[in-house]
């Protein structure tokens, strides 16, 4: 906002202070709100005047014939669309972040046999904890649930070569 200095007659200031006493707040804020309300109302009245002028113009003799013709043809109007649209569903593209990624040269897809071996490993209550497997066998098993669920569809070939013997050793048979 821009700061403005104005001089008001004492009678107007008293009236502003009385009204402001009911509403509360600072005098300058109250004056700004009153001015905004006044100009908003004035804009609305101007729009109403334009609407009234347009309606009066449409009631005039030059538009009377056009309106009468439109009312007479109203019974013969056809719907805009005469052909029904195809009822086949529209193809929905996959979400942007989930598109199939380019497989790297050393990545292999996860097969059902691999998933069943991982599930058997997960179902073994006597298997060692993840940190011990990582320490003793040098294999990270933290992604097994992602491979089984299909969230991750590929695995590095080297990872599978290190993981497979561990899974076979601790899988429930």
Number of strands: 2
Question: What's the rounded overall pLDDT mean?
Answer: 83
Residue stretches low in confidence (pLDDT < 50, at least 5 long) are none
Instruction: Tell me the distance between the termini.
Output: 78 Å
Integer tally of domains: 2
How would you characterize the overall build of this protein?
This protein has helices spanning 10-23, 27-59, 61-73, 112-122, 130-137, 144-149, 157-170; strands at 107-109, 154-156. The protein has two domains: 10-76, no CATH class; 103-170, no CATH class. It is elongated and about 95 Å long. The chain has a two-stranded antiparallel ribbon. It has seven helices and two strands; from the N terminus they run αααβαααβα. The protein is mainly alpha-helical and 173 residues long. It starts with 9 loop residues before the first helix and ends with a helix. It is 57% helix and 3% strand.
Task: Give me a quick take on this structure.
The protein is mainly α and 173 residues long.
Please name the defining characteristics of this protein.
2 strands; 2 domains; 7 helices; 3% strand; two-stranded antiparallel sheet; elongated; 173 residues; mainly alpha
List the helices and strands and how they pair.
Layout: H1 10-23, H2 27-59, H3 61-73, E1 107-109, H4 112-122, H5 130-137, H6 144-149, E2 154-156, H7 157-170
Antiparallel strand pairs: 1-2
Helix pairs in contact: 4-7
């Amino acid at each position: 906002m821009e700061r403005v200095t104005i001089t008001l007659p004492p009678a107007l200031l008293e009236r502003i202070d009385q009204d402001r006493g009911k509403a509360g707040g600072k005098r300058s804020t109250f004056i700004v709100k009153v001015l905004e309300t006044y100009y908003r109302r004035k804009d609305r009245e101007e729009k109403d005047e334009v609407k009234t002028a347009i309606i009066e113009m449409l009631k005039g003799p030059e538009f009377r014939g056009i309106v009468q013709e439109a009312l007479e043809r109203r019974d013969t109007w056809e719907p805009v669309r005469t052909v029904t649209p195809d009822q086949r569903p529209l193809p929905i593209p996959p979400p942007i972040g989930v598109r199939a990624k380019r497989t790297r040269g050393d990545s292999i897809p996860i097969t059902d046999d691999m998933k069943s071996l991982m599930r058997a490993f997960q179902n073994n209550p006597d298997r060692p904890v993840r940190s011990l497997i990582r320490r003793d066998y040098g294999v990270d098993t933290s992604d097994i649930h992602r491979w089984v669920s299909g969230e991750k569809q590929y695995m590095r070939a080297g990872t599978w070569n290190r993981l497979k013997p561990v899974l076979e050793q601790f899988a429930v048979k």
